[in-house]
């Protein structure tokens, strides 16, 4: 008399069946693609090749255009006047308003340097808040560090201090990348509904998911370490 399958055995069989089904679907899809290619005549294949080359050429052209406008590196701009010129040139801009004496600005610098190289579709700048009183007044910047997130010449959103980044000095570059993705100021490939810091047990229970837009002009508490 055969022993009845245990729940573990049943689960294993179900999983094996799922894997086999998935593999079959992938195999059928590949077979269909190969068959489609086999049935194409030379003109169609040449047309497909040309389309791909054209897409590649446009992508390279766009990349060169971004680099010529100062994308791809994290740069300091000397004055408020430069800010307006830089913002006018590029669709997506992240500008860090910093102060030399604020330690948290150095933490922000480290992450922005990495992201500027990774996301060349966006321009990454820094501006000394003490040298730009007009802009700080106009953009209502009260806390250092603050990132102004600009699309099409308009400031759409702000990252104020580290509140949105897990409320810790040890936030990861991925967390800042996610936050910029929420503002649609970079091309973000991850899941916006799952902030990276939520998977860290240390911070996971105390933070809620953010809405895609933050409320503009609300009064912020100081987040700098000068208090």
CA(first)-CA(last) distance = 77 Å
CATH architecture of the domain at 72-183: 3-Layer(aba) Sandwich
Report the order of strands and helices. Answer: HHEHEHEHEEHH
Give the CATH H-level superfamily of the domain at 72-183: Glutaredoxin
Shape call: flat
Using the coordinates shown, work out and report the CATH topology of the domain at 72-183: Glutaredoxin
Helix content: 40-55%
Major sheet size, sense and barrel closure: 5 strands, mixed
CATH class of the domain at 72-183: Alpha Beta
**What portion of the residues fall into strands of 2 or more residues?**
5-15%
Low-confidence stretches: 201-222
GO cellular component, one term: centrosome
Main location: cytoplasm
Subunit structure: Forms ternary complexes with the chaperonin TCP1 complex, spanning the cylindrical chaperonin cavity and contacting at least 2 subunits.
Keywords: Cytoplasm, Cytoskeleton, Nucleus, Phosphoprotein
């Amino acid at each position: 008399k055969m022993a009845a399958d245990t729940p573990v055995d049943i689960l294993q069989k179900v999983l094996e069946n799922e894997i086999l089904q998935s593999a079959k679907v992938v195999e059928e899809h590949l077979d269909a693609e190969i068959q489609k290619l086999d049935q194409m005549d030379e003109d169609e294949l040449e047309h497909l090749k040309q389309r791909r080359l054209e897409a590649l050429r446009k992508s390279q052209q766009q990349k060169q255009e971004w680099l010529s406008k100062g994308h791809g590196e994290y740069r300091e701009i000397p004055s408020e006047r430069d800010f307006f010129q830089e913002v006018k040139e590029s669709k997506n801009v992240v500008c860090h308003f910093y102060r030399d004496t604020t330690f948290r600005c150095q933490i922000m610098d480290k992450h922005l340097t990495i992201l500027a190289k990774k996301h060349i579709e966006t321009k990454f700048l820094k501006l000394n808040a003490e040298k730009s009183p007009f802009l700080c007044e106009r953009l209502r910047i009260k806390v250092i560090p603050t990132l102004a997130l600009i699309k099409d010449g308009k400031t759409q959103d702000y990252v104020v201090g580290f509140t949105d980044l897990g409320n810790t000095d040890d936030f990861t570059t991925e967390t800042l990348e996610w936050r910029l993705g929420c503002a649609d100021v970079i091309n973000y490939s991850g899941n916006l509904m799952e902030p990276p810091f939520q998977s860290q047990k240390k911070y996971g229970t105390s933070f809620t998911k953010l809405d895609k837009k933050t409320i503009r002009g609300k009064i912020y508490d100081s987040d700098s370490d000068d208090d």
